[in-house]
Amino acid sequence: MKPRPLAAGLSLSALALASCGAPTPSAAPDTLVIAGYGGSYEEAFKQSVIPAFEKSCSCAVTYIAGSSTDTVAKLKAQQAAPQIDVALIDDGVQNQAVEAGLLAPLDPAAVTNLGKVIDLARLPGDVGVGFSLNATGIAYNTDYYAANGLPAPKRLADLEDARLKGKLVMPSITQTYGLGALLIAAKVGGGSEREIDPGFEGVKKIAANAVTFDTTADVSNYFLQGQAVASIWGNSRVQTLAGKGFPIAFVYPEEGALPLIATVNVVTGAPHSGLAQKFVNALLEPSAQQAMAASNFNGPVVEGVELDPALAEKVVGQDRAVKLRKLDWATINENRSAWTDRWNKEVER
Questions:
Q1: Average pLDDT, stretch 314-323?
Q2: Which structural domains are found in the chain, ordered by start?
Q3: Of 135, 145, 221, 258, which cross-links 150 as Cys (Cβ 3.0–4.6 Å)?
């Protein structure tokens, strides 16, 4: 899918120059290798981030697209002789990569924008940093709900409505949105990452309406083809579909949406670690934050970033970020395999 065009006049040249200093054409160009998200993320990076960085730093950039788990698998395979400099990965998988020693601390002398990053996006020991913010909540077809007299959902429990039988796409626990549903349900029932039983009780009630369990994290086609009218999904994906004229809306549930944080990391033993640190800093410049919000509906993580009011309404802004809770990824990752086995037995039977 194509990313949204950048706002008129939006340029990252200034930020890249500020991050890298003046270009030195006489020097032999280094090649920075970035492994990160594919699809619209990759397109946005290639259009609005990488060219200016290459020009200002007199370097070349190679972008390797893949999921977060794919990227971490590559880092593990190359651990003895790293070939990747920068890794863009989801916060949950990032925690696993940190535990495996695959990621290096950021250098505050090089990443000078680190102090402007909101608390939610700061990571333990500054091993990596969040560079864009999203949320897991409820997605629903506004036309279908209106035509069938269904009130707009406000809480996760609203997806238990019998009128949604066979009209709900339930995300699998194998991807982030399914895990998010489990954690939201756990909180509603008085539990947490450390007390997950109420979460399973909650998701089983919702799953009774499921037409299918999605493992791809992209349920667009289910909505477009009318197979689904509701799901637990991410805000940026909902806004992307709404931007194409589809009648869909995102709801921050009353019990609290969960953060989805995309992180940027310098790989341990990266061949071009200095250049990698500069690239991290470039992503935290206000212009880069604005570009990513405009292209992919990802909320800024740097304080004071100004967005067009219409765009600000569609992203997870910092007014909403303060209401999101940090997740205990160490506990989640420690238990996720057992939770997956239990989910397969109790939820996706």
A1: 91
A2: 13-133+260-321 (3.40.190.10), 134-258+326-346 (3.40.190.10)
A3: 145
